[in-house]
Amino acid sequence: MKSVNSEAPVDVVLIGGGIMSATLGTLIKQVQPDWSIQVIERLGSVAQESSNPWNNAGTGHAALCELNYMPEAPDGSVTADKAVSINEQFQISRQLWAHLVRTGALPEPETFINPTPHMTFVRGKANVEYLKKRVEVLKDQPLFAEMEYSDDPATIAEWTPLIMKKRNPRQRIAATRNISGTDVDFGALTRYLFDDLQRQGGQLRLNTQVTDIDKQDDGTWKLKLLRHVGNARSTIRARFVFVGAGGGALALLQHSGIPEIEGFGGFPISGQFLKTTNPKLVAQHQAKVYGKASVGAPPMSVPHFDTRMVEGEPSLLFGPYAGFTPKFLKTSTWFDLPFSIRPHNIGPMLAVARHNFDLMKYLVGELLAGRKKKLDALREFMPTAKSEDWELITAGQRVQVMKKDKEKGGVLQFGTEVVTSTDGSIAGLLGASPGASTAAPIMVDLLKRCFPEQYPAWEPKLREMIPSLGTRLSDDPAAAAASLADTAEALHLPA
Fold first, then answer.
1. How many CB atoms lie within 10 A of CB 143?
2. Among 73, 135, 155, 266, which one has the highest count of C-beta atoms within 10 angstroms of its own C-beta?
3. Residue 325 domain flag
4. Model confidence over 193-226: pLDDT tens digits?
């Protein structure tokens, strides 16, 4: 076996070739262009796991249509706090992308983002009443000002014909629509960001896996690398390490030995979509339409019927159908889950299993569901769906965060969590949705946490790229309208 050693330290090592590493690398090069950056990706190209367009639904998560961000409380009330927070975060991503388009770092926006109305569609009296309450709460929020509501079948049929064609006329229905929604090809966006990073001197090492991470006496991190082509082994030292390896992040953070990772575990959930490229169907549905989740279903399994635009080709997706494998990545091994168990996290993991019976029941039901049941779920959205028009594709793996909880012993957290060492020299991202859509604010927050001494000097440049940084657009209707119009112009979206 060939052995190569490289001990020259670099300023930043980004582990994983997905949207998170691409965004962080982009931000660092903008604010500190003299820093050296290396990206380590174990596969042969970037954006092949969660950032791959067929491994996610491409929804620019802005809480315009996702009901799980506004759950109904036991007393029947709904609040807008979470939905507004998610939308605020997405606006930061939009502002960054708009800046990068204007400066030429990103190509024409149509290559990675396209206008696609975001809709919510519900059936039954109770769900219609819930949707009305949601609209009432959101109507005065500046970032949701354009939301339309209708319970008129003819109006909904104008918005999306496939959903209403041959639907039972006695069924009570309602929908909301926001035409400022988007479909995002996060795979293309990731590739473009890495292309620009390399133009600015960043290095990308493909087919290279990080096998271990050790803290050195001088404060740097020593990474052991295995290049899959030729089995060449090497090492690299870094002053700062970001672990943006998706489902692989937990194991690498455990290898690092930082105490901050203690108590964290991962719960893997797989998924599938039904997909069609039938031009007659695609032409009749121009929206991302979200419904209500089944009891016990994780947020990533909320049913939705989506327009997709990938590499210029339109298609429709429906799903996801959740499943379970012990893998943490599509291209990893069946031993990921058992190998992730440590004495410090087995308690929280067992507590999660004990307190999430509805989720376990839901996943078992999904695993046992055949093609007929999957098509029946599709027909709840599209009554005229024919089996021959649809193929089943496998989506990406998601690893939900499990962590300690004083009251329950352990909780399953839906969302993302940044774990950083006390000295800020290493950080990693755990969790799933709405991850990619909120990559920009997550990475800006990471810069603030890991580089407190440098951040004040970086802030003016960050504000140049992200004008609303540090403010709430929701508190200023005029600023919200101006920001939406500005980014819409740059990204060629409806104003």
1. 28
2. 266
3. yes
4. 999 999 999 999 999 999 999 999 999 999 999 9
> What φ, ψ does residue 237 adopt, rounded to 5°?
-110, 145
Number of domains forming the structure of the chain = 1
Cα(first)–Cα(last) distance of the chain, in Å?
58
Burial class (CB in 10 A: 0-12, 13-18, 19+), 455: middle
In a domain, 1, yes or no: no
Q: Residue 11: pLDDT above 60?
A: yes
- Alpha helices by DSSP H, 76-124: 81-102
Q: What is the CATH number of the domain that holds 166?
A: 3.50.50.60
Q: CB neighbours of 398 closer than 8 A, spacing ≥ 6? A: 50, 247, 268, 269, 270, 271, 300, 432, 433
Find the domain containing 176 and state its range: 9-491
Q: What is the pLDDT of residues 408-451, one digit of tens each?
A: 999 988 788 999 999 999 999 998 777 899 999 999 999 999 99
Q: Is residue 2 part of a domain?
A: no
